[in-house]
Design goal:
about 35% helix; 25 strands; alpha+beta
Amino acid sequence: MKGLVFCYDTPCMKKLVIAEKPSVGREIARNLGCFSKEKGYTEGAEYIVTWALGHLVELAEPQHYSESWKRWSLKSLPMLPEHLDQVVIDESREQFDVIASLLARPDISSVVIATDAGREGELVARWILKMAGYEGKAERLWISSQTEKAIKEGFENLHPASDYDNLYQAAACRAAADWYVGMNVTRALTCFYDAKLSSGRVQTPTLALMTAREDEIEAFEGKYYYTARGDFGLFSASYYPEENTIRFTDDAIAEEFREWKDRKGHVASMVTEEKSYPVPQAYDLTELQRDANIMLGFSAKETLDTLQRLYEVHKIVTYPRTDSRYITKDIVPTLTERIKALSETVFSRQVDEYLQNGYRNDNPRFVDDTLVSDHHAIIPTEEKVRMDKLSPDEAKLWQLIALRFLEVIGEDYSYRTTVCTIDVDGKSFRTRLTLPIRKGYRSVSESAGIKTASEAVDDGESSFILTQLKEGDEVTLSQVKVRKNVTTPPERYTDATLLSAMEHAGRFVEDDKLKAALGNGLGTPATRADMIEKLVQNRYVEREGKYFVPTAKGREVVRLAPEILRSPELTGIWEGRLERISKGKEDPELFIRDIKKMAADLVKEVERSDKVFSPVFKDSKKCPYCGSEMMKAVDPDGAVHYICQRLSCQYEEKEVKVRIDTGSASVKKVQQIPGEKVKVVINRKSAVRVPKAVYGTKTVVVRESKKAYRRDRTIDDHRRVQPQRLFSNDFGGGTMADFFRISKERQEKDRKRRK
């Protein structure tokens, strides 16, 4: 019978498919006919599908190479092992063991690497195979969406895994470089300055962008300027002191305008032009994160997490972690099916329009094979969209993607603009009227009744009366409204503007070659959101509304870090070389040798520094042990912590609310008589109503100072302040890290209890 596989004397040979996540693995298994679910994998007649949990293997910690490296000390630096070893991550060892046991099965004929199609995805799979000792045949699945069609076509066109050996080498070099530089510089900064400080080639220049902006804001001195607008009755016009600006600073002109009443003028020129505005480009991850922050208020991490669910769970968008805004020609034949998938959504009217009258599928701003590397732009899949299956956040983000897709395949917006220049006593006033000729892509958002994130076209500022004017016509200026303004300081970074700065980091570098190497910016689309969150978790920056504000500690990290780490240049150099490695044009060993030398030089640079770690914290307190300033922080429960930043001390205390009993009214119960109500007598001690309890603030120790254990235990308590020690059962206390760890443990216990 067709579709059945019979095995008699020899075992059925099967392919082992390794996906990056369980959700992706389950979807692949379903499409390959694997329905026998086991712990950590799903088996079928021809395939076994298992999965990683992201990285299952990581580079070993320093103490793996030498016991002396377990202790943080300047004497042990630089740490430069000849080769870096990989180790299985303890938290995910169980799943690694599942994969290793499957690889050892005699009925496994080959492996299909189905992790994310990119540099990091390649590293995830290769390290697993390396740690498990697998040396057999391996193939690569390379797809951009999780639809049934894409998966089946991908398995029909598997590539030899060896085609991606250079990509793996580039990924391994990136990981090794981050280890050598990150481990050594972080330990050097921490030990030399006696403060827990971390530094890295992406983290530090990203933080430096924000601290530099903060320096600009603090140094900013506002300046006054004027703008003026003339009232011509049926329309108004702005005063232009120069060709391209409406700002002026001359007090005399401002005073003169205030005296103007009913002045005669004439139309000096009327210039009418027909122009067009091109369709917006499709989304890559960074652009989508930027628009989602502006339009929906999502952080970069929230956007990525939501997008991942749309891709993995609902399968209605293509691969999220892309840096391309184009598609390849082979995707063009699928566009009609993708449009049809939107038929039962808010875009139904536009869908009908495109299906009946056609759409543009050859726009070079959208279709260009040369501008797609690993994955094409984020667009809808052919999967039919069921809006009732989406959460509110998923629906909002999906609408942004679908709207942009429909705009991209629309026509350019064309319009007619008329600029009218009026001369009044030698002063030039200008106004403009814009009328659409063809709405093009702008009709998509109008028909759907939703706001577009596409760049707005200026519709002008005047009335239709301009269409009746011609050169030489006399007009009357009834009055001029003068406004005095002050220049504003640069705006702090938001998720949107920071992502843009990271993506276009080359503009902060002067060297033209490095600008080219920084074409993809700081980090990758897949890692930028996590890097931003890491800066927040390390308390190097804080969120104030939608803005990022560097903390005193964050500003010190940038000030004290080696100069080359503060600039995007290092990433530009690395990315250029890693790109050459991925194409087989550079020797990986030469790259690693140079990285080791750089790590050693950076350690020496830190050790030669004459700077001192001296953050200036707001609302700080003096540490009762070492006397240094303590950083104020607020934990997820709203409690205020004060944390000593000295590594040699690390004292931490927090303020907790405690109940203070103030006494209550005494109640006397009178004996109840059968058939009657209970009588209660209240004896009040005072005519003043006193609450049963009030709350005060109490300081408790979360983490004792290291110095406390070195002190002579005979010293009198009155010689220093001794806040109350916080034990594990007091007020549920713990360090900031403990709060997150305990929260996860509690959730896990609740889940097991429900089971």
